Amino acid sequence: MRILIFSDIHANLPALKAVLKDAKNYDYIIFAGDAVDYGPNPAEVVDWLKENVDVWVLGNHDNAVAWNVDCGCGELTHELSVYTRENITYRLLEKAHIETLRTLPKRKKIEIEGLKFYIVHASPYNPLHAYVYPWLSDEEILNLMRERTWSGVASMIDADVVILGHTHFPMNKRITNFMIVNPGSVGQPRDEDNRASYGIFDVDKRTFEIRRVKYDVEKTIEEIKKLKLEKKYERWLISLLMHADARIAKEIAEKS
Questions:
Q1: 4 class by beta-carbon count within 10 Å (0-12 exposed, 13-18 middle, 19+ buried)
Q2: How high is the pLDDT of residue 256?
Q3: What range defines the domain where residue 192 resides?
Q4: Would 161 be classed as within a structural domain?
Q5: Would you state the pLDDT for residue 106?
Q6: Per the domain annotation, does 246 fall within a domain?
Q7: Parallel, antiparallel, or unpaired: how do β-strands 154-156 and 2-6 relate?
Q8: CATH number for 94
Q9: What is the DSSP string of the chain?
Q10: Which residues of the chain have pLDDT under 50?
């Protein structure tokens, strides 16, 4: 059995289409959150996900759009996030799309062929806002694998495979009993490689393969330009897509 795993599409339909074409053969689809914000195609992406994925967990941007709250995202992209939510996402989504986002769970636990999967956007400890970067120490990562109860007590999760998103950096790491995987970002890579990123989990072999695929980034840029955004934010979005580096994109936006 092959599971297609992806995250952080951020309303980038050409990138999603490229991933689906490249992945070809799969039996199950897991999306680790953040369908919306930044990109020009939020409605189309939400519609496709609703009809096609087997598991979809709530991302911090999905949550921000659903409930009109702050996304709590990183300093380098926070201003851009707020702007695109107000000037792209809310402009293009309908009430039904918002309602879809409101139904999403913060975490999902499933079992496939004897493997226990724990799916969450950010981390078990903080489902929407923690960043589990691949360069963190094993101890730091394990601390984020604890799940807090209503009483505030945190205990280690029961899982074989933990599927995360949120960082926009792909990861495939084994720590103690956990296999922790992050497919990276489909529509907003931030690891200096602007190709769409996704993963394939082979249940039989117990392996996770991170894949990168080129997509028609010019098509996404064309759609952004049609929205007639303020030039600063248009440049910012385009730079982010081209450079896949949040710091560089912000610097270009502020200097232009």
A1: buried
A2: 66
A3: 2-107+182-255
A4: no
A5: 98
A6: yes
A7: unpaired
A8: 3.60.21.10
A9: -EEEEE---TT-HHHHHHHHHHH---SEEEE-S---SSSS-HHHHHHHHHHH-SEE---HHHHHHHHT------HHHHHHHHHHIIIIIHHH--HHHHHHHHT--SEEEEEETTEEEEEESS-SSSTTT----TTS-HHHHHHTTEEE-TTS-EEE---SEEE--SSSS-EEEEETTEEEEE---SS---SS--SEEEEEEETTTTEEEEEEE---HHHHHHHHHHT---HHHHHHHHHHHHH--HHHHHHHHHH-
A10: none
Distance of alpha carbon 166 from alpha carbon 32, whole angstroms: 8
What pLDDT shows up at residue 126? 96
Contact 9, 187 (CB under 8 A): yes
Digit-coded pLDDT (tens) for 82-109: 999 999 999 999 999 999 999 999 999 9
Has residue 80 been placed in a domain? Answer: yes
Instruction: Assess if residue 121 is contained within a domain.
Output: no
- CA-to-CA distance for 248 and 256, rounded, in angstroms? 12
Domain count, the chain: 1
How far lies 57's CA from each of 36, 49, 88, in Å? 13, 11, 22
Give the integer Cα–Cα distance in Å for 94 and 219: 23
